[in-house]
Every structure is written in structure tokens, then in C-alpha cells.
Amino acid sequence: MSVYRSRGVVRFSETDASGRFHYTAALKWAENAEHELYRAAGVPIVGFPRRAVSATFERPFVDGDEYVVELEVEKLGNSSIVFAWRILSGDAVAVTGSHTVVHLDEEGRPSPVPEPLRATLNELCVSASSPVIR
């Protein structure tokens, strides 16, 4: 399985009173990587609410630290996608997590993942060549 990578820098507004990143920042970073992937596939970002989210925190980040989100497609269903992700601090894993999204139609009912996105996700799943980096 190939990995989609997104880079970022911790902003002061993402830290708490201890000076370390607030745990919700990691969820936003993973979500931002997911949205970059949707945009790259030419798919609107709306219509993919969360069904489940989990994360384990191993190392802290502080303002100005650089991070990399590695996003993988763990499972691609008819209307759902399970993403597994890691957030790295250098070569060290700082956060591991996963989240499940379900594609909804205009009436709020589960509907098939749009074909352009499915094609992109399938490409990521089967491509063992160099990772996509944004």
C-alpha cells in the first residue's frame, strides 16, 4: 500500500497552556491530509462525515515543530473509507490513529464513494512506488 504524505508546522494556536500541541490538532492534521487527497482527486470535500476516530499519542510537539502526516487507505468499501495514519516528528512516530468516513448523498444517506476518488484511492492502494508527497 502506498502512503500519502502531508507536511506541516505546529502553530502556536495549536498548543495548550503546557506549550505542547493540543490533542485535537493531530486529528485536524490527519483530516487536512485527507482533504488534500480529495482535492487532488477533484472531489468536493463535503459529504464525508466521521463515523469513528481513534488516536494514540506517543510524543509531544511544540510551536514551530515540523511534522509529516502519513495517510493510508486501510479499507475502501462501497460508501465508506477507513484511513490509517501516523504523524511523524522526524523519524519518530508521535501519533498513530485511524478514522472512518462515510460518503453521504444530498439527503444524508450513504452513497457510493465518487469514482474519481475511488480511482485515486485504488491507485494509492496498489502503487508500491514512491509515496505521494504534498
Model description:
The two termini are 18 Å apart. By secondary structure, the protein is an alpha+beta fold. A hairpin with a 2-residue loop joins strand 4 and strand 5. Helix 1 crosses helix 2. The chain is built from 2 helices and 6 strands, in the order βαββββαβ. It has a single domain, classed as Thiol Ester Dehydrase, Chain A (Roll), CATH 3.10.129. It has a 6-stranded mixed beta sheet with strand order 2-5-4-3-1-6.
Strand content: 35-45%
Regions with little confidence, pLDDT below 50 for 5+ residues: 126-134
Q: Which strands sit side by side, in order, in the main sheet? A: 2-5-4-3-1-6
Kindly report the average pLDDT value: 90
CATH topology: Thiol Ester Dehydrase, Chain A
Largest sheet features: 6 strands, mixed
Number of helices: 2
What's the SSE pattern?
EHEEEEHE
The total strand number stands at 6
Assigned CATH superfamily: Hotdog Thioesterase
Number of domains: 1
Fraction of residues in H or I helices:
10-25%
Give me the CATH architecture, please.
Roll
Shape: elongated
CATH hierarchy, class: Alpha Beta
> Structural class from helices and strands?
alpha+beta
End-to-end separation in angstroms reads 18 Å
Structural descriptors:
single chain; 134 residues; alpha+beta; Thiol Ester Dehydrase, Chain A; six-stranded mixed beta sheet; 6 strands; disordered C terminus
Layout of helices and strands, plus pairs?
Elements (H helix, E strand, L loop, with lengths): L3 E6 L13 H19 L8 E8 L8 E11 L3 E10 L2 E11 L12 H12 L5 E2 L1
Parallel strand pairs: 1-6
Antiparallel strand pairs: 1-3, 2-5, 3-4, 4-5
